[in-house]
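FAQ

Q: What does a record look like?
A: Structure on top, sequence underneath. For example:
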């Protein structure tokens, strides 16, 4: 079941008298948080009581997913409410100073903040943006009345540091005075107070006694591993790196608690819709994050890279202490927030997100999604029901898993279940036809100059575009959607023998890519 929506600013006609019926919307997004890093998902060594309270007062999604296995595309999926592949947002940017000039969520894709602002909300964002650096693409230019945070993918937490990725207030650099997570918490509380007309101080906003939308996008617990005072309370953790990580996570939890306390203090808890999830799975080897019992980590499409802590609370509408086991995805927060805000949107251009409220309140049966897909270049995955197909990069064949019996993805069932393999591959091919090729690849000092110009001999966007052309030609030729081409299907039969490297009578996409890469490198 899909929710099909279109955003037309001119179509919204909402009176100010309706504002009181609209819930506040509070969206916490953690960064690189592992599936098993919170108490309600099994964490024992680092307490997360404030995060856990969202589950206890609302619902925990056991099978909650991010739309990508790395930060930036996942955040674009959330803000757009759709698969970011629909507009070519498939890869991270790399550091801002090296990023491809095309990087960013395009203006023609409206953000959640732009939609809710048009519906009368006071809109604020605190924290990490990472979906647009250029003028016109920054938070205060994409529907947020107020932004305090930074634009890039990572920066130090330590106060007073400006480095290459400054903290900004509505685009203007500022100097921090506290550990960054703590400073973000104070800013989030200040925004809520101003939105409710309970605080008169700089910086002023024009929003008074409106429902608020706060997008609190943490950079915690992403590296760098900057220790903070919370680590001292975790002396029982022997591993110093894990103890540092624990302090960072405790700081995140305390920030969540500080914001929730302010909502309660203002008497707004009953009518505040709250979401909490992570932009991708934890990078265990880098930070000691935990994804168990899941296989894999950040950067992969095994469950550990994409299945994340996922919680929701709305005391006025959702029963406390619930567990929901059907697969849901980050962009469902977008669609649910729109539906909860109470305005009608005409059908047209689709959202991929689904309003979860009817499923939680037993008004709708079945699953919110027929299937869910992921793609990052040659990495691909699809989940449909209990079945999941994973293609991890250029090497190796696609693998088929049954998550009901094999949550840790240890046993490849592709040889035993060819019909199910073909079914999922065909569904992925169907989904892929509705996407665009990636508009950039990640760039840093290794393959680009400052300003985003590719270095000679590097393999940035030009190679990506060439690869996308090959992929598109392959899809058109694969008439039976079995992810391989016979000699009859192959459009250039005179080169088929050279393409079919293992001489099995079929050309896979990777064999086609390898052939054309070798042709380009020979020029």
């Amino acid at each position: 079941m899909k929710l099909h929506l279109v955003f037309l600013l001119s179509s919204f006609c909402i009176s100010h008298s309706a504002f009181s019926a609209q819930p506040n919307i509070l969206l916490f997004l953690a960064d690189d948080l592992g599936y098993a890093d919170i108490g309600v998902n099994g964490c024992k060594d680092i307490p997360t009581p404030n995060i856990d309270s969202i589950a206890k007062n609302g619902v925990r999604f056991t099978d909650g997913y991010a739309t990508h296995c790395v930060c930036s595309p996942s955040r674009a999926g959330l803000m757009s409410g759709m698969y970011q592949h629909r507009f070519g947002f498939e890869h991270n940017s790399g550091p801002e100073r090296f990023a491809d000039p095309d990087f960013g969520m395009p203006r023609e894709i409206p953000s959640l903040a732009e939609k809710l602002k048009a519906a009368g909300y006071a809109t604020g964002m605190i924290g990490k943006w990472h979906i647009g650096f250029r003028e016109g693409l920054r938070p205060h230019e994409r529907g947020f009345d107020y932004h305090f945070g930074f634009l890039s993918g990572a920066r130090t937490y330590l106060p007073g540091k400006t480095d290459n990725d400054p903290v900004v207030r509505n685009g203007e650099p500022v100097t921090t005075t506290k550990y960054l997570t703590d400073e973000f918490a104070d800013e989030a509380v200040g925004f809520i107070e101003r939105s409710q007309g309970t605080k008169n101080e700089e910086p002023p906003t024009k929003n008074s006694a409106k429902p608020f939308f706060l997008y609190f996008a943490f950079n915690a617990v992403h590296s760098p591993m900057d220790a903070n005072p919370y680590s001292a309370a975790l002396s029982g953790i022997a591993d110093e790196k894990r103890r540092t990580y624990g302090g960072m996570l405790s700081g995140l939890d305390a920030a969540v608690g500080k914001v929730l306390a302010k909502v309660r203090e203002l008497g707004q808890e009953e009518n505040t819709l709250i979401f909490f999830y992570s932009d991708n799975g934890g990078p265990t080897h880098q930070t000691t994050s935990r994804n168990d019992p899941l296989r894999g980590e950040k950067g992969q499409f095994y469950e550990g890279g994409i299945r994340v802590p996922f919680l929701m609370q709305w005391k006025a509408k959702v029963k406390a202490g619930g567990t929901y086991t059907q697969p849901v995805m980050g962009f469902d927060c977008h669609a649910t927030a729109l539906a909860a805000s109470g305005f009608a949107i005409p059908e047209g251009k689709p959202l991929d997100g689904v309003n979860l409220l009817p499923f939680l309140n037993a008004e709708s049966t079945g699953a919110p999604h027929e299937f869910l897909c992921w793609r990052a270049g040659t990495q691909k995955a699809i989940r449909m029901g209990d079945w999941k197909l994973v293609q991890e990069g250029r090497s190796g064949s696609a693998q088929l898993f049954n998550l009901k019996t094999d949550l840790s993805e240890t046993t490849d069932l592709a040889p035993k279940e060819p019909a199910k393999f073909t079914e999922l591959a065909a569904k992925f091919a169907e989904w892929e036809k509705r996407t665009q090729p990636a508009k950039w690849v990640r760039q840093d000092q290794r393959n680009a100059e400052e300003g985003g110009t590719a270095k000679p001999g590097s393999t940035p966007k030009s190679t990506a575009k060439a690869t996308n052309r090959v992929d598109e030609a392959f899809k058109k030729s694969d008439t039976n959607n079995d992810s391989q081409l016979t000699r009859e299907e192959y459009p250039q039969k005179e080169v088929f023998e050279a393409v079919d490297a293992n001489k099995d009578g079929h050309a896979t996409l990777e064999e086609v890519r390898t052939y054309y890469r070798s042709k380009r490198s020979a020029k």
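Q: Is there anything notable about this one?
A: The longest strand covers residues 24-30.
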